[in-house]
Amino acid sequence: MCYGWFVTNMRSRGDDLGFYSQLSKWVNNRSNVALNIIVMAQPA
User: What is the mean pLDDT of each run of 10 residues along the chain (44 residues)?
Assistant: First the structure.
């Protein structure tokens, strides 16, 4: 894992908070889409 390097690299660019908020938004959107697909796939 290059997690430490990744965080340091983001911080050095000065946009770590913006990046993490975008990432969490993307993850939330993806999980919501997956949940919707799972719910729609359930037989009524």
Answer: 60 66 85 85 73
**Contact at 8 Å (CB) between 30 and 39?**
no
Domains held by the chain: number = 1
Distance CA 17, CA 10 (A): 9
- Domain membership of residue 8 as a residue range: 3-41
CA atoms within 13 A on the CB side of 43: 0
- Written as six digits, the tokens of 16 are 């770590």
Residue type, 2: C
pTM of the model: 0.41
